[in-house]
């Protein structure tokens, strides 16, 4: 997903375009999970996933981590209290939701974080193979872009929906050439094109006039 912005200083490209591309891929990946689990709420602010770490849920941003957060999303949608101790301890209700999403926790619960450290099953990885590949490419491009910038690599904090944030603006649906869609704040989309990792076409705000 290389961005060709002409002679723009590299630090400026990293601080604006590259995070937006990654945020778009995170939103698309979340949408792929929603197709399997229709009651999963929308991801309020995908750009907020590229932020501070959460010691309760791990720190690495990848598709397995996105499934973990989707379990919290299902809990919120269904009114289930899946954590305690200020969100750190993941209880058996969380484990049940994680199981729905294709995650396992083979060991006994951790004394302080419970069933937090869930892992993706092989059949889950196979089901989402295309989604995982696209997200890994976007994560790799983002990591490469921020390397050597003298800035710390930032890690995953979690969806804004989990913390009750509105995400910083009203989001609208944007679609690409192959019909995939993301929800974005129009002003964010106006800053730079967000390109679909599947068809290579830019996402555009859906006016409702198409098919």
Question: What is this structure, in a nutshell?
Answer:
With about 210 residues, the protein is an alpha+beta fold.
Descriptive notes:
It contains seven helices and nine strands. The chain has helices spanning 10-15, 17-36, 63-78, 92-100, 122-127, 129-146, 186-191; strands at 50-51, 83-84, 89-90, 103-104, 119-120, 155-156, 172-175, 181-184, 204-205. Strands 8-7-9 form a three-stranded antiparallel beta sheet. A two-stranded antiparallel ribbon has the order 1-6. A hairpin with a 4-residue loop joins strand 2 (83-84) and strand 3. Helix 2 crosses helix 3 (63-78), helix 2 (17-36) runs antiparallel to helix 6 and helix 3 (63-78) crosses helix 4 (92-100).
DSSP summary: helix tally: 7
Q: Helicity, in percent?
A: 25-40%
Q: Unreliable segments (pLDDT under 50, ≥5 consecutive)?
A: 1-16, 150-169
Distance between the termini: 27 Å
Biggest beta sheet attributes: 3 strands, antiparallel
Quaternary organisation: single chain
User: H/E series, N to C?
Assistant: HHEHEEHEEHHEEEHE
Q: How much strand?
A: 5-15%
- What structural class is derived from the secondary structure elements? alpha+beta
Mean pLDDT: 76
Number of strands: 9
């Amino acid at each position: 997903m290389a961005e060709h912005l002409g002679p723009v200083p590299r630090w400026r490209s990293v601080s604006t375009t590259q995070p937006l591309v990654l945020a778009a891929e995170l939103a698309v990946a979340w949408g792929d999970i929603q197709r399997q689990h229709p009651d999963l709420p929308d991801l309020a602010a995908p750009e907020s996933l590229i932020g501070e770490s959460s010691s309760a849920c791990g720190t690495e941003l990848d598709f397995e981590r996105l499934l973990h957060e989707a379990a919290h999303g299902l809990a919120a949608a269904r009114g289930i209290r899946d954590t305690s101790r200020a969100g750190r301890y993941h209880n058996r209700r969380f484990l049940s939701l994680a199981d729905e999403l294709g995650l396992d926790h083979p060991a006994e619960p951790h004394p302080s974080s419970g069933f937090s450290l869930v892992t993706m099953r092989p059949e889950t990885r196979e089901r989402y193979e295309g989604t995982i590949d696209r997200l890994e490419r976007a994560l790799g491009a983002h990591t490469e872009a921020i390397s050597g910038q003298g800035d710390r690599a930032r890690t995953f904090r979690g969806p804004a929906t989990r913390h009750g944030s509105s995400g910083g603006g009203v989001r609208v649906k944007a679609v690409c050439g192959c019909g995939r869609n993301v929800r974005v704040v129009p002003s964010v989309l106006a800053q730079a094109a967000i390109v679909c990792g599947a068809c290579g076409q830019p996402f555009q705000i859906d006016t409702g006039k198409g098919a």
